[in-house]
Amino acid sequence: DAGVIQSPRHEVTEMGQEVTLRCKPISGHNSLFWYRQTMMRGLELLIYFNNNVPIDDSGMPEDRFSAKMPNASFSTLKIQPSEPRDSAVYFCASSLVQGGAGELFFGEGSRLTVL
Amino acid sequence: GENVEQHPSTLSVQEGDSAVIKCTYSDSASNYFPWYKQELGKGPQLIIDIRSNVGEKKDQRIAVTLNKTAKHFSLHITETQPEDSAVYFCAATYTGNQFYFGTGTSLTVIP
Q: Which of B27, B48, B87, B105 could form a disulfide with B38 if both were Cys (CB 3.0 to 4.6 A apart)?
């Protein structure tokens, strides 16, 4: 299996622009998580989905952030408009929950820089 | 909700020595405790995990211990090597819940 695939790996944009990050989870996994990682705050959960349904989005910083999972093999995280404080590495992770919590598989991350 | 605390935040050891990282959690419902290793520029990767029905698990030079009564679990790395240098995260969760991560430990193994 190719693992969790994220794109783009690097994104540099200007303040006010829209940013869309993409994630393809591991086939067959039924949970998907979006995390943000910064030096100051560590790994923060933004939102997670079970069977394509958003379960907890309390970590989404504000209305500028939105996430969708239209099907089991694709998810997006959108920031509109972007701000310099959104600069971070964004990770997508997927997991198979079957009879108990299972291993979380992370993608390589999308490094976002907002100028 | 769950609160996971991790110590120390940084750790330096001589090659060949042991390293121990400790985590505590607050939610007694948590029953799955994974440890992740993150190398520079990469996503975290699972190195070992433990479920609440066991007290210890070993995998070569890595071991994890769990004390459910005290709500703490620890990662032990023996005979450390330079390639063990990375950031290590503990986490706690239960079925269908989110993963609560510790703040990370930056381990440096000095050759």
A: B87
